[in-house]
Amino acid sequence: MPGKPMKEYVTLPEQWRETPDTITTWIEQSLQWVSAMPQKIPAKKKPTTKKSKNV
Q1: In sequence order, what are the residues at sequence separation of 6 or more whose Cβ sits closer than 8 angstroms to the Cβ of residue 11?
Q2: Which parts of the chain sit beneath pLDDT 50?
Q3: Which end is more exposed in the chain, N or C (fewer Cβ atoms within 10 Å of the end residue's Cβ)?
């Protein structure tokens, strides 16, 4: 893919189209790795201070 790389996407080598077992193995390993990760805890939001405009 030309241009800026996107971190949410994965590209596979074209040669793997001929060997679906290879793709299946990598997907299974990836799912196991991701499922073992701890749950993401969202960061606390900082209070915003907005200056009011007196008209």
Answers
A1: 1
A2: none
A3: C
Distance, CA of 33 to CA of 25 (rounded, Å): 12
Structure tokens at 28: 């299974």
Whole-model pTM? 0.50
* DSSP at 4: S
Structure tokens at 11: 């590209």
Q: Which amino acid is residue 30, in one-letter code?
A: S
Q: Which two tokens stand for residue 45?
A: 């939001």
Q: Which amino acid is at 53?
A: K
